[in-house]
């Protein structure tokens, strides 16, 4: 049986209390649903002396609309410009929320594809954004890791994946993030110093050891997503071993704004679960802008294939995962092509 180490559990009632505690105690970690942190603690990947529970902090709950300046507005208001999601909103709430389903369907889809129902009931969007990276040589018990020799993400100085490299290549594995990037979302990071807002794409860095710019004393408090133009179509697709529960082996989110004649005005594609940060596929405007989406599916799929080079960081063969990139890009884009265009 894997046992937890001893730690103190704190339940702040306000965001101010939570960030003050994190500032004061360097050996404290926030916990939301605990669906990632608890197994990782049992594996001795983290051994914080204090846990700061976020679910009792009221400011971190809910989904609401704001105007362009961030002031809350009623649903149906002409001034509505952003959907704001509190960090402790669970993945089940997110996947079922009528406003999210209507305005941000790829995000609702991604949230509904995390793990299985029990984990989605407990896991939160804040925890998903701050999910630790994953690797075959890291997500193992202390006993397993000791037997092989530790790796540079935890307690060692070698990467068992690349063998020579000094950089951790553990995989970014959070489902909601690729969708959030294609939707131009940003996060509010709150600490005892105040709030800073950063784009979700800029939130991540290519370093498997700690792959976000979040300081240890900062909390993700909210996610802000501009309401997409009605001409924007989106999709989220995911490859996993068992559809009922598993982490992604590959995940793809896409968004495209189409003109009335179905030509592409703007397109964005994010591929993840391969490297330490989600990959935004570049060069797509040149391929797609001004062309009908249905006519550029193959060219976009090939562009993604060229730019994705998975390593052996998770248990499934990297060459197969790479081969699946164009297959799933095609599937995502075909979901977005208007039915009329497909029929024609
Ligand atoms: C069997 C299994 C399958 C899973 N499958 C998937 C999957 O398919 N896709 C997927 O994306 N995830 C998956 N997960 C991982 C996890 O369940 C989800 O990512 C979930 O969203 C994590 O949220 P949480 O609230 O439980 O985070 P926690 O476990 O509470 O926290 C995760 C990390 O984020 C930090 N944290 C939490 N909230 C905040 C905050 N507001 N501000 C700053 N830091 C914070 C914690 O300190 C911790 O480091 C799976 C987990 C399990 C056990």
Compute the number of strand runs: 13
Largest sheet: 6 strands, antiparallel
Strand order of the largest sheet: 5-4-6-9-7-8
- Order of helical and strand elements: EHEHEEEEHHHHHHHEEHEEEEEHHHH
Tell me, briefly, the overall form: globular
CATH class of the domain at 58-129 and 172-226: Alpha Beta
Question: Which ligands appear in the coordinates?
Answer: flavin-adenine dinucleotide
Which regions have little confidence, pLDDT < 50, spanning 5+ residues? Answer: none
Task: Could you tell me the CATH topology label of the domain at 58-129 and 172-226.
Answer: Uridine Diphospho-n-acetylenolpyruvylglucosamine Reductase, domain 3
The CATH architecture classification of the domain at 58-129 and 172-226 is 2-Layer Sandwich
* Rg over CA atoms: 20 Å
Question: Mean pLDDT across all residues, rounded?
Answer: 96
Number of helices: 14
**Helical coverage, percent range:** 25-40%
SS-based class: alpha+beta
- Residue fraction in strands: 15-25%
Describe the structure in brief:
The chain is of the alpha+beta class and 344 residues long.
Descriptive notes:
- 32% of the residues lie in helices and 20% in strands.
- With 344 residues, the chain is α+β, with helices and mostly antiparallel strands.
- Among the domains are: 58-129 and 172-226, Uridine Diphospho-n-acetylenolpyruvylglucosamine Reductase, domain 3; 232-337, 2-Layer Sandwich (Enolase-like, domain 1), CATH 3.30.390.50.
- A six-stranded antiparallel beta sheet has the order 5-4-6-9-7-8. The chain has a four-stranded antiparallel beta sheet with strand order 10-11-12-13, sandwiched between helices.
- The mean pLDDT is 96.
- Bound molecules: flavin-adenine dinucleotide.
- Flavin-adenine dinucleotide is lined by residues 29-37, 39, 54, 87, 91, 114-115, 119, 122-124, 126-128, 130-132, 173-175, 219-220, 245-248.
């Amino acid at each position: 049986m894997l046992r937890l180490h001893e730690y103190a559990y704190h339940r702040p009632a306000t965001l101010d209390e939570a960030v003050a505690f994190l500032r004061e105690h360097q050996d404290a970690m926030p916990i939301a649903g605990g669906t990632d942190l608890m197994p990782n603690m049992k594996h001795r990947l983290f051994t914080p002396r204090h846990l700061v529970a976020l679910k009792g902090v009221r400011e971190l709950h809910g989904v609401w609309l704001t105007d362009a300046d961030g002031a809350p507005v009623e649903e149906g208001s002409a001034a509505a410009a952003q959907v704001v999601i509190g960090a402790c909103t669970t993945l089940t709430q997110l996947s079922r929320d009528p406003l999210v389903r209507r305005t941000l369907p790829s995000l609702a889809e991604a949230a509904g594809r995390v793990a299985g129902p029990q984990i989605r009931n407990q896991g939160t969007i804040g925890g998903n954004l701050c999910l630790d990276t994953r690797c075959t040589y890291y997500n193992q018990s202390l006993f397993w890791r000791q037997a092989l020799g530790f790796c540079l993400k935890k307690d060692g100085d070698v990467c068992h994946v690349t063998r020579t490299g000094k950089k951790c290549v553990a995989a970014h594995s959070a489902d909601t993030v690729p969708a959030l990037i294609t939707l131009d979302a940003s996060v509010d990071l709150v600490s005892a110093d105040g709030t800073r807002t950063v784009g979700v794409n800029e939130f991540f860095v290519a370093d498997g050891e700690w792959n976000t710019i979040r300081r240890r004393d900062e909390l993700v408090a909210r996610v802000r997503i501009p309401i997409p133009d009605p001409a924007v179509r989106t999709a989220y697709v995911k490859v996993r071993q068992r559809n009922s529960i598993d982490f992604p082996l590959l995940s793809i989110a896409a968004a495209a704004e189409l003109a009335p004649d179905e030509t592409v005005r703007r397109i964005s594609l994010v591929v993840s679960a391969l490297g330490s940060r989600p990959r935004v596929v570049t060069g797509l405007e040149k391929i797609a802008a001004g062309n009908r989406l249905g006519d550029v599916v193959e060219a976009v799929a090939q562009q993604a294939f060229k730019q994705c080079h998975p390593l052996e960081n998770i248990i499934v063969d990297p060459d197969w995962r790479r081969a699946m990139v164009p297959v799933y890009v095609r599937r995502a884009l075909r979901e977005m092509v208007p039915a009329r265009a497909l029929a024609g």
